[in-house]
Amino acid sequence: MGKSSDFFGRDIVSIRDFKRDQLDRLFQSVENLEKSPNSLDGVLKGKLAALLFFEPSTRTYSSFQIAAINTGMQVTGFSSPAASSVSKGETLHDTIRMFEGYGADCFVIRHPMPGAARFAAETTDKPVINAGDGSREHPTQAMTDLFAIRKAFGKLDGLSVGILGDLKYGRTASSLAYALSNYDVEMTFIAPEALQMRLEVAQYLKQRGITPRSERDLKSVIGGLDVLYVTRIQKERIPDPTEFEKVKGLYQVNLESLKEAKASLKVLHPLPRVDELAAELDATNYQDYFVQAAAGLPLRMVLMSLVMGGAS
Ligand code: CP
Fold this sequence. Notes:
Blueprint: H1 20-35, E1 48-53, H2 59-70, E2 74-78, H3 92-101, E3 106-111, H4 116-123, E4 128-133, H5 139-153, E5 160-164, H6 171-180, E6 186-190, H7 199-207, E7 213-215, E8 227-230, H8 241-247, E9 266-268, H9 289-308
Parallel strand pairs: 1-2, 1-3, 3-4, 5-6, 5-8, 6-7, 8-9
Helix pairs in contact: 1-9, 2-9, 3-4, 5-6, 5-9
The chain binds phosphoric acid mono(formamide)ester.
């Protein structure tokens, strides 16, 4: 790990920018960190991470903040636009320039506008990590998701993965599909008509020779799945409230809907959940979503260390 890695000095804007061997090496480093939890302590001492969150977050903000602290960095920025001059109309460009002036060595940015992370990366020479840009991408979530699946099954190749829910507006669903396309995985998209996966994602997969199965209903596919990745309806991104009313409550994963599932099925969810994933699953062997969320911390510690050139 360090300045010779593929990740050193790079922007993490899209999961599509990373190949299978790079992802596999990242996951191996996360496994190593889990075996030696203090091995990255202080490796980024003296550096400053700017966390600029223009949208709410629990997991992504906190895990990047803790990852930065654990690796020895100082942290600045804001967790909500209301707590910054963004609320007075300051632009993303000017906000980045300000934190550059204060000595930020890297930026972690969440923004409601698709493409904001790419814009930020073009604005600064410092590495930019996309912590979610609108409905487009959430690359570090996809890395966490793949790592969690690999941890549960010891592999990714050969698995059957169902991605259920709001595939149209959910950025974690599209990033996961992009990430899985690096592996020999059978993908099934399960969504109501109005929330089907966006065309650009289907086209990307097609270019890679992948045509996922597409279903409206979980019942017809649940028995064949190794992983069920559930997503929330992104109410905040659906432009028309009447469109939301039509889709809300259309699906819920609970014990009844998993009656035909393999005993080894793992249910993942990027969280937060609302009503699409029943709490009755929490105490079952299907539950992997809290394990998945926890994996976001070591993964982001390793990623920041690789990007910033911290030696292990
Ligand atoms: N999974 C995820 O991005 O959660 P937060 O919105 O809480 O960061």
